[in-house]
Structure formats: C-alpha cells, structure tokens
Amino acid sequence: MKALVTAARGSHLKPLTHTINKHLIPLANKPMIFYALEHIASAGIQDIGVVINENDTEIPQAVGNGSRWNAKIAYIKQTGGTFGLGHVIKVAREFLGDGKFLLYLGDNIIHDDLTVLIHDFEQSASNCLLTLAKVRNPERFGVPEFKDGNIIRVEERPIQPKSEYAVAGLYFYDQTAHIAAEHIKPSFRGDYEISDIHTYLAQNGYRVGWQEINSWWKDRGDARDLLEGNKFILSRLASKKQEAYIEPTVKIEGAIEIKQGTKIGGKTLIRGPVSIGEYCLIKDSYIGPFTSLGNKVELHGANIEHSLVFDDTSIVTPTKIIDSVIGAGTTISARHLEMPEGNKIIVGENSSLAI
C-alpha cells in the first residue's frame, strides 16, 4: 500500500502563512506534517507521495527524502494552483498506480492505531473506507448521510448536516477512486471535492465503508485551532530533558519536554504539559500548561500559558499572556519600561490583538 499526503500551501492561518507553509507550523516543537508522516511510517508504509505546489521548495527542504522515517518520499506537484482534494487524487494517478492507497491530510493529526485501520480496510469488501469522527460542528466538514447503517452520500459543508459525523482527514481507497475522480466536476468553489468522489462511489455500485475514530485534530484555518492542536499533542507528552541546564531554584510540575542547550534559572515555575525548544533562556518566569516555546526563545519575568511561541521570540513583560500564537522573531516588552509609556504595535495584515 502507498500513502498520499497533502502539503500544498494555502491562504489560511494568516498572517502566519505569509512566511511559512501551514504544514510546517510547529506544534509541540515539530512541524505538523511530521505527525502524519510518522503515523504512516509507524504502520510500515514506506512509499509516500507528498503533494505540493509546483514551485514549493519549503516542504522538500524540511521533509527531505523520507530517510528519517525509513521511508521513500516522492514529491508530486500541483500545477496552476490547488483545486481540492479530488484533484490531489487526479495528479497522483501515475504515482499511485492501480494498488490500494491511503490519503492523509498533512494538516491533520490522528492518534488512532493506523495498523488496525489498514487491516480493517484490506480485509473488508469495501472500495473505500472513510474515518469518521463525531463533532460539535459537522457543517464545517464533509458530512456522511446514512441509510440502514451504510453511507449513501457525503455532502461538503452542508447547511443542514444529515448526521453528527465529520469525515476525518484519513481515507482508504482501491483503484476505483481513479474512476470516480474522472467523473466528478468542479463544485461552486471551483474545487474537485473529495466528498463528490465518495458520493460517486456510494451511488454507483461501489462499497463505501466507515470506521469511527476517537483521536483527531484538524486545522480549520483559524489560529485558535493551532492552540487546540498544540494542546492535543501536549496532552500526550512524556517528560524528557535533553542536556538542559536547570538551576535548583526552578520548580517543575507535570510533564515537561526540554531540548538541548536550554537554560532555566531564577524563580521560575513550569507547570506542564509544556514543550521547550533548543537554546532557550528562561529566568524568573511562569510557564503554564499547554504552552510550547520554540527554539532560541527568551523569557525574562514573563507569565505565559496555553500559548504557542515560535522561534527567536523575546518576552520581557510581567503582563500575563494567555491563549496566544506568537510568530517567529517577535519581541514583547513591558510598556512601563518604554518612553513614552503606551501600547506600541507593529501589526501586519490579517492580525488579531486584544489589548
């Protein structure tokens, strides 16, 4: 079985994605696409195609040839733009051949056992196996419609959802997916919808099976979703300290990951789960649960929790920071130390602030 992973650059998550492909945004100090690749490799799949934009150099540079996962990665380019997940299957036709394959969205993180799901698909009579998850807001996803327990249709972002399930970002197919991909037409959004492939299969004599999963996170284009994704990963964090220097005055509670070269001192309290990157400098600060600090981050007298901080950021203010996503190279200082005192802001387009 081969695997297909999506990694094309989109316009969501601005302003962060002005400078980085969203699939490379670090959650718990690891690019989000790495979780998909690790999951696939853990199930023994070694032949992976990654779909990227035609001029993308970011993903190949960050991901490499797959050797770190004992896999072989081929890059498949979408020319002329991105046209939906159905189009992904179209452009990957040559790579996939006629064998069974799985499609894994690179901005999704799933913790269910992939080996079990693969086994269930290969042992079933299904032409397609969808993973489904119960969600509070199914109208934001592809939603299956059932009859007698069988999927008869999948509607993309329905106004009136026909079930409480969302189709999650992991799909299994045999060669009939290519037949369906040739029959679907662009939607009102101009995209070849993956939901239309599923509907075609269900309504043309092919069997669309399904399996409910319990552990799924998906980026839905909102920076607040990144905090949920970060929390999703950190909630499963195991403590690990790699050659970090920690003074005796530092108090640590809960699961903490600290990478090499980091120094933590003074009257500092870290209450996990927390992930701290390489070569950080932290002094007299509080770091609360579900916080990730990137590499070379400096905190002096800071107070932060439930936040995602990218590389090369400096925070020197006692004002508490919560529920925040802070991009790389940012400086946050105490306004009472500035002359004249006041809120000083440099903000790019599509930013969000609460002062």
List the helices and strands and how they pair.
Elements: E1 2-6, E2 26-27, E3 30-31, H1 32-42, E4 47-53, H2 58-63, E5 72-78, H3 85-91, H4 93-96, E6 101-105, E7 108-110, H5 114-123, E8 128-134, E9 142-147, E10 150-156, E11 165-173, H6 176-183, H7 194-203, E12 208-212, E13 216-218, H8 223-234, E14 240-241, E15 245-246, E16 251-253, E17 256-258, E18 263-265, E19 269-271, E20 274-276, E21 281-283, E22 286-287, E23 291-293, E24 298-300, E25 303-305, E26 308-309, E27 314-316, E28 321-322, E29 325-326, E30 331-333
The secondary-structure class comes to: alpha/beta
**Count of helical stretches:** 8
Q: How many beta-strand segments?
A: 30
Assign the CATH topology of the largest domain: Spore Coat Polysaccharide Biosynthesis Protein SpsA, Chain A
Q: Which stretches are low in confidence, meaning pLDDT under 50 for 5 or more residues running?
A: none
Total of domains: 2
Please describe what this structure looks like:
The protein is of the alpha/beta class and 355 residues long. It is 19% helix and 32% strand. The protein has helices at residues 32-42, 58-63, 85-91, 93-96, 114-123, 176-183, 194-203, 223-234; strands at 2-6, 26-27, 30-31, 47-53, 72-78, 101-105, 108-110, 128-134, 142-147, 150-156, 165-173, 208-212, 216-218, 240-241, 245-246, 251-253, 256-258, 263-265, 269-271, 274-276, 281-283, 286-287, 291-293, 298-300, 303-305, 308-309, 314-316, 321-322, 325-326, 331-333. Strands 5-4-1-6-11-8-12 form a seven-stranded mixed beta sheet, with helices on both faces. A six-stranded parallel beta sheet has the order 14-17-20-23-26-29. Helix 3 crosses helix 6 (176-183) and helix 6 packs across helix 7.
